[in-house]
Amino acid sequence: MTPAFDLWVYLSSTPLLWLTVTLLVWIAADRIARLSGRHPAVNPVLISIIALGAILIITGTSFATYFQGAQFVHFLLGPAIVAIAVPLYRNLDKVKANILPMAAALVAGSVTAAVSALAVAALFGVPDPVLVSLAPKSVTAGVAMGISEQFGGQPALTAVLVVTTGLLGAIIVTPLMNVLGLKDYAARGFAAGLAAHGIGTARAFVVDEVAGTFAGIAMALNLVMTALILPLILYWFLK
Fold first, then answer.
1. Quick check: 221 and 104 in contact, CB under 8 A?
2. Number of other CB atoms surrounding residue 125 within 10 Å
């Protein structure tokens, strides 16, 4: 037997198999993104989701089995978010100089993100549980699922909507900002983090460190703001 075969036998009998598959898929997706010059449409997160979904379907693997190994990657999401504090510290002066514009943008962006989605969905007669599931789509999945469940939504549907929102935001944010002629990376990043949470923040860091820093701030503040205003907004839409 070859070392490669021995390794396969070992991995296939442990949850590490799916951790290994996840890492290899990500490395390949990131390689493809780099070859494209980091084009917004060639998003490594999107490529990874499609590739892993196809592998699970082809191999007949359940999500529960996959997650036994992939949960190690999930665990690292927490430290990754905390690590955003490093670029925040490096750009602290710029953050202090933009406190008031950031506060205004936070309120406007949080309200708009929730109200616009709910208004369009309500216009098409979407049922109340789906409205509740849709409302927190612009915040990180873990928090959004908690908010959705608390108000009678469907956490699984919320997770799908959150990821979809993040991917769409990460793909369109750069072309949209270019069309609008917005050159301030602090403003560009803040908009990306506020509308597209962690996936938008990851895209902002690819473009510019300042943009990534402000995206991380927006993502964190939007968690708090959404949790505060969403009960009032949902009350108005569901009454």
1. no
2. 6
What distance in Å separates the CA atoms of residue 87 and residue 205, rounded to the nearest whole number? 10
User: What digits encode the pLDDT tens for the residues 90-139?
Assistant: 778 888 888 899 999 999 999 998 899 899 998 998 898 898 999 888 88
CA-nearest of 214, 182, 225 to 96 is 214
Q: Is residue 124 helix, strand or coil?
A: coil
How many whole angstroms separate alpha carbon 156 and alpha carbon 24?
26
Q: Are 170 and 196 in contact (CB under 8 A)?
A: yes
Whole-prediction pTM value? Answer: 0.80
Q: Measuring CA to CA, which residue among 151, 149, 144 is closest to residue 199?
A: 144
**C-alpha angle 193/195/201, rounded to 5°?**
25
> pLDDT of 52-72, one tens digit each?
999 999 999 888 888 887 777
CB 23 within 8 A of CB 52: no
Query: Is the separation of the CB atoms in 187 and 207 below 8 Å?
Result: no
55-94 b/e (C-beta count within 10 Å ≥ 16 → b): ebeeeeeeeeebebbbeeeeeeeeeeeeebeebbeebeee
